[in-house]
Amino acid sequence: MPLKLIYHPHYDLNLGAHVFPSQKYRLIHDRLLADGTATPEDFLRPEPASDEDVRRVHTAEYVHKLKAGTLSPDEEAKLEVPYSKELIRAVWLAAGGSILAGQRALADGWSANIGGGFHHACPDHGEGFCVIHDVAIAIRRLQADGAIERAMVVDTDVHQGNGTAEIFRGDANVFTLSIHQEHNYPHPKPPSTMDINLPDGTGDDDYLAILEKHLHGAFNEFGPDILFYIAGADPYCEDQLGGLALTLEGLARRDAMVFDYARRHGAPTAIGLAGGYARRVEDTVRIQATTILEACAAARRGARAKSR
């Protein structure tokens, strides 16, 4: 396995029949082991992010409310997942996982957090199943450590990364690209550095052509020290919360394209597996496991190129 995978059993929120299938983290972990993609030694277990790290992105008041369990009913309702101490433990672990993924990507070239990608969380509130913004926390921690100066976030979730856009608005050192369904949550959509608003029903060929054009422009405009790839499974044609029409093959080609741009531009890449709400949980698991497979293939191509 040419990349380290970050996972913790407590990523699973045990939400039961909730539309957010938090059991997918365990199922992806188990699938990667069962099909021989990974061995137990390929997985690293994260520590929770420190409160100091979380406060690099979120307000002290909001962090206190989360830890003390004093969110208002409206604030809890915005989360769209039931508040619990287990929820807070899980999202702090996911943020620690994205920090570790970033550190390992810088050391090794590639890494993936089996959790994370909670891109709707904003500085003073959570929403849309996202409590704290693990990727933003990781970027700010890496910057604080002096490990990076400039970061790029490429977000292919079907929903625009409004939290990412809000957190990094006006920050010339973080380039945010979001490709998403225009007529879908969230409303309104604060501006990313580069927003790609797709019409309902966009399929593989149009999606991939549009994405390639904008990746070309983004990497020509901005040279990142690290890429965080928020890999949503929800552009899938059978997703319950999406309205795009990508196939399983199209999603794999999407991932391969992003990884190819990262490899050719020498950008260490940390992956977070974001939304996915397919009618069959097995499809979401397959899509997100395939993202890991495509990253492995890209890492091997990079290693072969260096050895020549």
Keywords, please?
globular; 10 helices; 308 residues; single chain; 12% strand; alpha/beta
What does it look like?
The longest helix is centred in the last third of the chain and has 27 residues. The model has no long low-confidence stretch (mean pLDDT 96). This protein has an 8-stranded parallel sheet with strand order 2-1-3-8-7-4-5-6, with helices on both faces. The chain contains 10 helices and 8 strands. It is globular, with a radius of gyration of 18 Å. Helix 9 links the parallel strand 7 and strand 8. It has 308 residues and is an alpha/beta fold.
Tell me, rounded to a whole number, the average pLDDT. Answer: 96
Q: How big is the Rg?
A: 18 Å
- DSSP E strands, number: 8
How much helix, percentage-wise, in residues? Answer: 40-55%
**Assembly category:** single chain
Query: First CA to last CA: what distance?
Result: 20 Å
Uncertain segments: none
Secondary structure elements and their pairing?
Blueprint: E1 4-6, H1 24-34, E2 43-44, H2 51-55, H3 60-68, H4 73-79, H5 85-108, E3 110-113, H6 134-144, E4 151-155, H7 162-167, E5 174-181, E6 194-198, H8 204-221, E7 226-231, H9 248-264, E8 269-273, H10 281-307
Parallel strand pairs: 1-2, 1-3, 3-8, 4-5, 4-7, 5-6, 7-8
Helix pairs in contact: 1-10, 5-6, 8-9, 9-10
